[in-house]
């Protein structure tokens, strides 16, 4: 199933995408949070399936970010070897690397089709198409054998990144660790994490072989990123195992799995006002946004 949050005439509701149409699931899930459906999934599965087969589509609805306020929004850094290399770093063998992850605040999350704000503090805005995992169970100290059992589904994230903060953001004397913290700050701008258009449940994604699941990015219609998830340094299960040793994962947590090579910084073409950036993951769909001067 493809499940998310839709909006029509100012009303938001839990919905499913069926044959490019929108099916309202309000009769099964009260409220406007997908987290409620995730937490009661086993008891609501049959009712949702019945509604999907009814063919009752809502006309004129738009999709919103499926999880605008996840308990935790975690993202892996440097999880595709070719992207590590294009960023100017050595890519050691997998056995010598541990996953590196960071967090983004909920204020970064942006709806599909919404404008990515280009503000005066941005001088090097860039795109990063990513597969993202949505957790369905509370898990601590997961193992490789049971990690995927805690996954509810998968969505698409664009980890918009500011590569170079301008001088107005840096009224200071430089310290040895400023570059690292500047990198983090460059991830935290409002609206810098488009998400969606929905979540494809894990049972549907499990029908695809890992090599068939491809992460792609398109700038103004031109393909700029493309790699199968088998090119990831750390698999979804490995990431969950590592992260769950550090913190407890909860239903509704989102983990973005890193971006393939082909980002704007490496290509010498960063985002500009009016650019359209589309991110696609096989089995999920296309997340499309446009950059607008704010």
From TrEMBL:
The protein's name is 2-keto-4-pentenoate hydratase/2-oxohepta-3-ene-1,7-dioic acid hydratase (Catechol pathway)
Please give the coiled-coil regions recorded for this protein: none
Hey, which family's this protein in? Answer: Belongs to the FAH family.
One of the entry's Gene Ontology molecular-function terms is: metal ion binding
Which Gene3D superfamilies does this entry report, sorted A to Z? Fumarylacetoacetase-like, C-terminal domain
Q: Which positions make up the signal peptide?
A: none
Keywords tagged on the record: Metal-binding
Q: Where is the Fumarylacetoacetase-like C-terminal domain?
A: 77-292
Q: Biological process GO terms, please? A: small molecule metabolic process
